[in-house]
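@channel anyone free to eyeball this complex?
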Amino acid sequence: MLKFLKLTAVSLCISNPAMADGLGLGRAALPEEVAAWDTDIRPDGAGLPEGRGNVETGEEVFAEACAICHGDFGEAVDRWPVLAGGHDTLSSERPVKTIGSYWPYLSTVFDYIQRAMPFGNARSLSNDDVYAITAYLLYVNDIVDEEFELSHENFMEIPLPNEGGFFFDDRPETELSVFSGEVCMQDCKGAVEITGRALVLDVTPESDEEAPAEQQDAAQTTPAPEPVATLDPALVAAGAKVFKKCKACHQIGEGAKNRSGPQLNGILGRTAGTIDGFRYSKAMTGAGADGLIWNDETLGAFLTKPRAYLKGTKMSFAGLKKPADIEAILVYLQSVME
Amino acid sequence: MGNVFKGMKPSRRSFLKGAAAGGGVLASASVAMAAGDSAITQIKPWNQELGDGVDVSPYGVPSEFEKHVRRQNVEWLTADPVSSINFTPLHALEGIITPNGLCFERHHSGVAEIDPAEHRLMINGLVEKPLVFTMDDLKRFPRENHVYFLECAANTGMEWRGAQLNGCQFTHGMIHNVMYTGVPLRLILAEAGIKTAGKWLLVEGADAAGMTRSIPMEKALDDCLVAFSMNGEALRPEQGYPLRLVVPGWEGNTWIKWLRRIEVGDQPWHHREETSKYTDLLPNGQARYFTWEMDAKSVITNPSPQAPITHGKGPTVLTGLAWSGRGTIPRVDVTIDGGVNWHKARMDGPSLSKSMHRFYYEFDWDGSPLLLQSRAHDSTGYVQPTKDQLRALRGENSIYHNNGIQTWAINAEGVAENVEIS
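replying in thread with the prediction:
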């Protein structure tokens, strides 16, 4: 690494005079533009915004925005990332790599949440919410107690347990010489036996060559299902585009399965909270029990501002602002009736 | 168990195609002797009728008989297809260039669809002049063309604990090799003027994952490109349209797609993709990080589980691909007996640094079972290790950077299977 940094200094000196004055391309970035995009955080605390949030608030925000994939306590749903636990597993046969067991720096947690989470609605959390969620993640990893509040002031006082668990790539010293040199070409070993077979596991996806021709044709057009003839095709197409906002959590069409959100086939006309096998919020099943049926009016209102329409819903989506988008998506959902 | 194969046996269709192409299947030869080959004696529609005129397909697509050549996902690998990966069908490709539509995809928040008129590249941090470029600005810099492979560090990652997926598309298909057109990153950095304390870059994507990686300045000034084209046309959306970083020889995750910002700093950022992911856990519980370079690697693409031998014994073409993140591949060795005896393969086509190389080994198959392996040598003298050699040093939990030698077992019917051998 040291050698590498020296080289850097040398190459800088060489490279700069070549185009010392540059080509004069581009324009100056305005301070507010840099501020809008430069939100990254470093282990030394560079980039941390002012703010604060405690474990209790974090638990609430996490339950609403994160638990649908990561579980109420960071234990994860399906194959989504596990965020808590896994202590002392790194040298075991099945390591569990979590924030508490593996991640070296807390700054990475804050940075990642503020840039990429929640999945499908990135950059929607306030700085205080990100502090609160981060505090909660420390709590579920047994690093702080339930009274803890995290802020830009005490952030640097919280090392993660595995900070010392990493070292810079040493393959040049430990592997390259071992794996270089003369090789044997003739009579290199005795009898050869097969010691493992992929077919025993049988986890390979079906080959397309095995698929009948019709299925291949279908594959060309999925996942867009056939629209029902009476609906305005332009609206259906517009709705399909709007549906991209929903795709992170919801599937629709042939073979649609529950993901982080329930599958949506035939949603119009159905009682709320009634898809088998989906873990709804109490608010949603309660609304269904009280007689909420999804139609253009109710679903349209829900999609405008989900958490205002149905307080306590797990759906972390902020809502569709444009009435035209709501009209289009309702037509699209209608078009994909079973 | 021998011949009991479930997923990847040569299908009836591929046999029939082989026969129609006049391969060497006995049945078709005898038919030809009895009544003449109908492919010759009958007038076919395409011999007689008019085909489509020009412009029926303004952007051309492959023949309808090639529909089986496509990227494929392994559904159980990830929680959701929006944050997932699919695989390049290496077994169906020739030469060294991957067609754009078959380049494997890996997204963390789906494909960002960006209007190039609304795309900007910002340079900020330890620079004399923080700058913003439009796509038009970037196309006024001197540009270069280079062929490079892009391999995901997790390629072959499912095979650490043993033979698992049956097909080189799935074991080795997180790779593609295309010609990029772009601006050397050092020219763009020079335009902003790097301050002397500037030792690292943070590169950031415009997608909903806001992908970031730290890149050391030495690499940035060496051979990185800010690319806008692949194989002569604009980048495909799934490959980062309109702008991506090209980091030759380094793990694919560093090749930030939808590139919107480059920040110069004095230390690495240790972001999610270079700490919790893309770090290589060793048996003692310690992990390597910043393992950027891709070690030399090769794989036999034909025959392989998805491309069995369908012609019976006789003249047989064995071919495959080899690459190294540290240079060229001057030599590949091939064995058909599980490593008892090795043969130097015939290298063919361009030999470019940090690009795929194509190799061939033609032999006369006697119809007996085979154990096929290939072993790459790169221009630094490094020789591709066996999987057991790798496991001895790294254990089985490192997920990334598995470049061990791959074995295909071929049975007497020509069916191929992913196996491990003693």
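from a first look: Chain B has a mean pLDDT of 93.
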